[in-house]
Amino acid sequence: MTTEPGGRSLQRRLLASMAAGFAVLLLLISLLLWAYARGAANRTYDLLLAGAALAILERTSFAAEGPTVDLPHSAMEILALNPDDRVAYRVFSPSRGEITGTAALPEPGRALDDAPHFYDAEIDGTPFRLVSQGRRLTAPEGREWVGVQVGQTVEARRAQQWSLFLNGMAGLAVVSLIGLGFVWLAIRRSLAPLRQIERALRHREPADLSRVEGRPPREIRGLFDAINGFISRLGQSRALTESFIADVAHQTRTSLSALQGHLSLASDATGYDEMRARVLKADRQAQRTVRLTNQLLANAMVIHRSDRGSLAPLALRPLVRDTLAEMLRDSRLRRLALSFEDEGLGEGGDRIAGDPVSIREALRNLIDNAVRHGPAENTVVVRLAEAGTEVVLSVEDAGPGIAEADLPRATQRFTSISRETAGSGLGLSIVGAVAEGHGGRLELGRSRLGGLRAALAFPRLMALLLFGVWAAALAPPAARAETLNIFSATDGPAMAPLIAAFEARNPGLSVSYSEFQTLTLHRALLDVAPGAMPDLVISSAMDLQVDLVNRGLARRLDLPNELRPPDWAAWRSELFGFTFEPAAIVYDRRRLAEDELPRSHRDLASFVRDNEARLSGRIGGYDLRGSGIGYLFATQDAIQGPQAQRLAEAFGRADLRSFCCTAQMVEATAEEEIAFAVNVIGSYAAAFAADRPEVGLHFLDDYNLVMTRTAFVPLAAPRPDLGARFMIFLLSDEGQGLLATRTPLIPIRPPAGVETPILHQIEAQRGSFLPIRLGPGLLTYLDRLKREQFLSGWDASLGRAVDGHAP
Question: Count of CB atoms within 10 A of residue 518's CB?
Answer without folding.
Answer: 23
